[in-house]
Amino acid sequence: MSAAIHVSRVRTLYKLIFRVHRALPPELRILGDNYAREEFKRHKNCNPQEANIFLNEWTDYAINLAKQMKPLHQAKRKTVGKYLNPKLLDHMTDEQLVQLYELHKATSLQSDDSDQINVSNKDSTDR
């Protein structure tokens, strides 16, 4: 693949991810945008084999998320994301495992914060 085609593919995918993120709830959109931005920066100078894997995985992510953001899917399931196959953890580097854990903490914190906000909003409306 020529360099110009590769750069064009990366830019198109990058823009698509941010476009799909627009349909996410605000707190998930911020988290997703920041994570995608950092990952693309981190892989800017990777070797061609890693770049191919990286682009394929992010393409799958964008396709899956776009399907989940369709109104019909949202009306039926009201869920976003999918479970990670535990067998994949065996193939991850220590750095990837730490990053996955940090992402888990960030999403758990977001969830806890929104629950607290909902509870405090409910308390104030009950009065």
UniProtKB/TrEMBL annotation:
GO terms for biological process: mitochondrial respiratory chain complex II assembly; succinate metabolic process. Keywords: Chaperone, Mitochondrion, Transit peptide. The keyword Transport does not apply. Pfam families: Complex1_LYR_2. It is found in: Mitochondrion matrix. It comes from the Eukaryota. InterPro entries: SDHAF3/Sdh7 (IPR008381). One of its GO terms (cellular component) is mitochondrial matrix. Its main location: mitochondrion. Belongs to the complex I LYR family. SDHAF3 subfamily. Plays an essential role in the assembly of succinate dehydrogenase (SDH), an enzyme complex (also referred to as respiratory complex II) that is a component of both the tricarboxylic acid (TCA) cycle and the mitochondrial electron transport chain, and which couples the oxidation of succinate to fumarate with the reduction of ubiquinone (coenzyme Q) to ubiquinol. Promotes maturation of the iron-sulfur protein subunit of the SDH catalytic dimer, protecting it from the deleterious effects of oxidants. May act together with SDHAF1. Interacts with the iron-sulfur protein subunit within the SDH catalytic dimer. This is Succinate dehydrogenase assembly factor 3.
